[in-house]
From TrEMBL, chain B:
SUPFAM superfamilies: Radical SAM enzymes. One of its GO terms (cellular component) is cytoplasm. GO terms for molecular function: 4 iron, 4 sulfur cluster binding; coproporphyrinogen oxidase activity; metal ion binding. It is found in: Cytoplasm. Belongs to the anaerobic coproporphyrinogen-III oxidase family. HemW subfamily. Probably acts as a heme chaperone, transferring heme to an unknown acceptor. Binds one molecule of heme per monomer, possibly covalently. Binds 1 [4Fe-4S] cluster. The cluster is coordinated with 3 cysteines and an exchangeable S-adenosyl-L-methionine. InterPro entries: Aldolase_TIM, Coproporphyrinogen-III_oxidase, Elp3/MiaA/NifB-like_rSAM, HemW-like, rSAM, rSAM_sf. Its main location: cytoplasm. One of its GO terms (biological process) is porphyrin-containing compound biosynthetic process. Its cofactor is [4Fe-4S] cluster. This is Heme chaperone HemW. It holds the Pfam family Radical_SAM.
Length: 599, 384
């Protein structure tokens, strides 16, 4: 147990790639928290997918023991938070468990959209903030400009900013000293009844659910009987420990400390992030304010390419959901795709991560249908239904109006691409709210419909700005608009998995684009195939895929029958990658590719 | 005694000669241009291979021999003679024994025709390819139209049976261009024509140009399909199609090729040659070394030119039979399939029949003649 005055709890906030993980590695290394021979890059990114994509998905923690220049021993607890907007809510929760932040800004790049989003969360959580200007080893590093930007754009004092190279190790010692000197020690009462915050939880195959806790008051020991105040469930604590960053058991945790407990809990769903943990007997009666659980905002269907793998998919999804309370699912049947699941995600990255994990860890090839947001459908009788799937759109005669979710998007972009960005936002039904300059970069704020963003907005933004724009968003609320359900008919039959909700004024353009795309994506058949877009019974766009006219091996290659058999096998394999819909084979990738907008 | 399955197709021998004077830019056959050929070694190799493959089949009656290439008309006549002499030593040959040789229409070849006939060749297939000098040049051919037709006439005066090959749906060819060309070819009153649509093959000069987007004027699928229909119509009265790309008057079909298409047995020697033989119901596929030098060395050192010998499973045999037989106007005979295979096909046959793609009468199924041009798509539907 450590004296409160010798504890510092902090997080690192940064835009992606500005060096958060590298800096964390250096801090761990400089303090010999991990033996050099056990160091691997990006120590805190534990999942393969995290390491591969260079993103942090779950919060990770490390306890660092540090003897400061003042001769005293300190315990520094770092919570590494996800940097991506999909997980913004998790960031805000983790930040409640610490008192300060290192604000890492790449000194060759400057402030970016996620820098802003994350630093505002730190400010919201009343953090003391120490700016760190990273990558000073690079020639393009411009400390004065970036310090000025931090003061202008974010509005915090950057005079004490520490120049650092997380790569060479320069400035790391100064960073450790700044943590000790400038960040506040936690407060807490060692003699009060136990009050601990449930910061995060995840499932481990050997230990069951692991609960990350921050002790506010009192003590937590191995063998204690504890109570989760939200649901009054009680548990016997099997294990107490800290992350270094590997798990290390200790006997007890006191005020201000961060560590884990295990208590033979089977499901992550039984632990509520933000809950207050106390002792079963003589516990506190004063619960922390708590958090609302994160809500999925993007939905899509996941179907196995091979319909025989449906049960495997169910199994995979159930296992993943055990460890991820923000991921929701329910069974879905589609006339086109058979049995699958309608799943809800925090955002597109979350969707991709889950989909990748299913394909990779469970070896199931998936068809992903068009991502959709939740619409609020107000019925004539005054009731409201949430619409997660365009296929479930109620009969229009009963519908009064629809509302769709809107976001506030912040985009930072070099001047020369501003025009393209404005056009893109305008095309996506955006309403400009703000446009300011920070040096040669513009910061634009747009009010946009989420449904225009979930699909390929970010890809388009990157491509029109050659990767120089940064982007972040927040949900703002619902607003009424003229939204309609557009169906796609292939060979005169509606393909449910291709239905989308779209603004009335853009329906025709989207419909035409989708029909044209599908005409290229669907291979020719023996008959001609009409491809139509319709709203209600009205056809708004139409293309015709001409019949296959020629597909023959003209020559004879002597008696080489094997060659013909191989060709057949290849064609058969191609056919297997398609879904039969009526008499038409639709390739699996068509369900997503048809929606991509080029303009 | 009922005939064995393969016997319904017949028994033939294929001999591959892998050398050409020049490599045509469209050609993906196993053909090579070499500075010099040690003719004695090659002749010995073929003779040794004949003895080897005769081993298990010497009790069979051989009904065809086919010299294919490459350009077998460049073979020394004495090699052809030695081979055919050996053949008649090793097998009993049928009364209607057919010996075909593929010929390129230049004077070099024509000068050997008499000797080929003396050696026993009784049918030649002449690769005229086009009746227009500009196109022949574009196809990389070494002959003019006049020359080619002179060689063809010579062939007709020497051999009992001849065939003429044309490639159509060529670069910049219009429907009326082809109509005129085919009219002219039919005016020679041939008894057999092979009319192949130009196929752009990977790993050929044309294939590379195609990938780079610089091969211009190749007819699109619609035009090619129209040309195919026109061809079917124009040949219907005199030389009806009996196979996807082959046209003949009744009785003049290539009997050797019919063995492939009817699922018969055929021995195959020479670089890259593919054979199929059946003993006691077990079918075996052979593939010879494709590279000429390696084949020669294998024959001399390993005493066999075959690179692989594999069992063809019952299912594969049946698949091959359908893939081949459905190219024929006469179609495939379902009674040659196992009951399980037949049952698996019934529903699909009915479906394809309803869609106007497949005809059926009793055990015989065949592709609607005008739909041969989409044969591969029909086969996938039937067999997937
Ligand atoms: N030259 C240089 N590269 C750095 C420095 N810090 C991080 N990087 C590189 O920047 C990239 C992003 O770093 P990372 O720590 O993964 O960023 P994160 O996304 O914020 O976690 C990686 O390629 C790092 O190697 C630095 O101080 N100097
Ligand atoms: C094995 S080839 C060789 C015959 C002979 N060497 C010749 O070139 O005349 C047999 C026939 O296939 C045809 N052929 C070869 N390559 C072709 C291609 N890429 N497309 C269409 N027909 C082709 C030609 O008509 C050729 O006559
Ligand atoms: S087409 Fe005939 S001559 Fe030309 S390379 Fe091929 S086999 Fe040889
Ligand atoms: Mg990282």
């Amino acid at each position: 147990m450590t004296e409160l005055s010798n504890i510092r709890n902090f997080s690192i906030v940064a835009h992606i790639d500005h060096g958060k993980s590298t800096l964390a590695d250096r801090l761990i290394q400089e303090t010999n928290t991990v033996a050099t021979r056990d160091m691997k890059e990006q120590m805190l990114d534990s999942m393969d997918i995290e390491r591969e994509r260079g993103i942090t998905i779950k919060a990770n923690t490390v306890r660092i023991d540090y003897r400061a220049d003042d001769g005293q021993d300190y315990v520094l607890n770092l919570i590494d938070t996800p940097g991506h907007v999909d997980f913004a809510y998790e960031v805000s929760r983790s930040m409640r468990a610490v008192e300060g932040s290192l604000l890492v800004v790449d000194s060759t790049q400057g402030v970016e959209a996620q820098t802003l989003a994350n630093v505002y969360q730190a400010i919201d959580a009343d953090h003391e903030i120490v700016p760190v200007l990273n990558k000073i080893d690079l020639p393009a590093s411009d400390l004065d400009r970036v310090a000025e930007q931090i003061e202008d754009v974010i509005g915090i004092d950057a005079s004490g900013a520490i120049p650092v190279s997380a790569k060479t190790g320069q400035g790391i010692h100064e960073t450790l000293e700044a943590i000790v000197q400038h960040l506040p020690a936690p407060k807490g009462d060692p003699d009060a009844p136990l009050k601990a915050m449930l910061v995060d939880s995840w499932y481990d195959a050997y230990l069951g659910v692991i609960v990350l806790v921050r002790i506010i008051d009192g003590h937590l020991k191995k063998g204690d009987r504890i109570k989760f105040m939200s649901n009054n469930t009680t548990h016997h604590v099997d294990r107490i420990g800290v992350f270094k960053p590997a798990m290390a058991e200790i006997d007890r945790l006191g005020p201000g400390e961060i560590g884990f407990l295990t208590a033979s809990i089977k499901q992550v769903r039984d632990t509520r992030v933000g809950d207050t943990i106390t002792h079963e007997k003589h516990g506190t009666t004063d619960a922390l304010p708590g958090f609302k659980p994160s809500q999925p905002v993007v939905f899509c269907g996941l179907f196995p390419v091979d319909s025989a793998q449906f049960e495997d998919l169910r199994d995979a999804i159930e296992k993943l959901a055990l460890n991820d309370a923000s991921f929701s699912y329910e069974m879905e049947t589609s006339a086109a795709l058979g049995f699958g699941f309608r799943c809800g995600f925090l955002g597109l990255l979350h969707l991709e991560v889950i989909r990748d994990r299913i394909e990779r860890e469970y070896d199931i090839e998936l068809i992903t249908t068009a991502p959709s947001v939740i619409y609020h459908v107000y019925m004539r009788d005054g009731s409201m239904v949430e619409l997660h799937n365009p296929a479930d759109m109620p009969d229009l005669t009963h519908v009064d109006h629809l509302e769709e979710p809107r976001i506030k998007a912040t985009i930072l972009v070099p001047d020369e691409y501003l025009g393209d960005v404005l056009k893109l936002c305008q095309d996506r039904r955006g309403i400009q709210e703000d446009l300011t300059y920070a040096g040669s970069r513009a910061m634009v704020v747009y009010d946009l419909p989420l449904n225009e963003v979930v699909f390929d907005f970010y890809d388009r933004l990157k491509s029109v700005t050659k990767g120089y724009a940064s982007f972040d968003y927040q949900m703002t609320g619902y607003r009424e608009d003229f939204l309609v359900k557009m169906q796609i008919l292939v060979n005169d039959e509606p393909v449910d998995a291709l239905s989308i909700m779209v603004h009335r004024d853009r329906a025709e353009q989207r419909g035409r684009a989708m029909c044209e795309k599908l005409k290229d994506l669907i291979p020719r058949h023996m008959f001609k195939i009409p491809i139509q877009a319709a709203i209600g019974g009205r056809i708004i766009a139409r293309e015709t895929l001409a019949a296959l006219r020629k597909d023959v091996t003209a020559k004879c290659y002597g008696g080489d029958a094997t060659r013909k058999r191989k060709l057949l096998d290849k064609q058969k394999a191609g056919k297997k990658k398609m879904r039969q819909f009526g008499k038409v084979d639709i390739p699996q990738e068509a369900f997503i590719s048809a929606l991509k907008m080029d303009g | 005694m009922a005939l064995e399955n393969w016997q319904l197709g017949g028994f033939g021998l294929y001999i591959h000669w892998p050398f050409c004077q020049a490599k045509c830019p469209y050609c993906d056959f196993n053909s090579h241009v070499t500075a010099s050929i040690n003719q004695d070694r090659w002749a010995d190799a073929y003779l040794n291979e004949l003895e080897r493959v005769a081993g298990d089949t010497s009790d069979r009656v051989l009904s065809t021999v086919f010299f294919g290439g490459g350009t077998p008309s460049l073979m020394p006549a004495k090699t052809v003679d030695a081979i055919l002499t050996k053949v008649s030593d090793l097998w009993t040959t049928s009364n209607d024994f057919e010996v075909t040789l593929e010929a390129n229409p230049t004077s070099t070849e024509a000068s050997r025709f008499r000797d080929f006939r003396t050696a026993g060749v009784n049918r030649v297939s002449v690769g005229v390819q086009a009746l227009n000098d500009k196109d022949l040049k574009a196809l990389g051919r070494l002959h003019t139209t006049t020359e080619a037709l002179r060689v063809y006439e010579t062939a007709r005066s020497i051999f009992q049976r001849t065939s003429l090959d044309l490639i159509y749906a060529r670069q910049h060819q219009s429907l009326s261009d082809w109509e005129a060309e085919l009219d002219r070819a039919l005016a020679f009153a041939p008894d057999h024509l092979s009319l192949y649509q130009l196929t752009i093959e990977p790993d050929t000069a044309f294939g590379r140009l195609w990938d780079m987007g610089t091969l211009k004027g190749v007819p699109d699928d619609n035009l090619a399909a129209d040309m195919y229909e026109l061809t079917t119509d124009m040949t219907a009265d005199t030389l009806p199609a009996y196979e996807t790309s082959n046209y003949a008057n009744s009785g003049s079909e290539s009997r050797h090729n019919l063995i492939y298409w009817r699922g018969g047995d055929y021995l195959a020697i020479g670089p890259g040659a593919h054979g199929r033989t059946t003993f006691a119901g077990k079918r075996t596929g052979t593939v010879a070394w494709r590279n000429p030098g390696m084949w020669l060395e294998a024959v001399e050192k390993q005493k066999t030119g075959d690179m692989t010998i594999e069992d063809i499973s019952q299912t594969d045999r049946e698949t091959e039979y359908l893939l081949m037989a459905l190219r024929l106007r006469e179609g495939a005979d379902l009674s040659r399939l196992s009951d399980t295979a037949r049952m698996g096909l019934e529903a699909k046959i009915e479906e394809l029949n309803e869609e106007g793609l497949l005809l059926r009468s009793g055990d015989i199924i065949n592709v609607v003649p005008e739909k041969q041009i989409v044969l591969n798509a029909i086969l996938v539907r039937l067999l997937a």
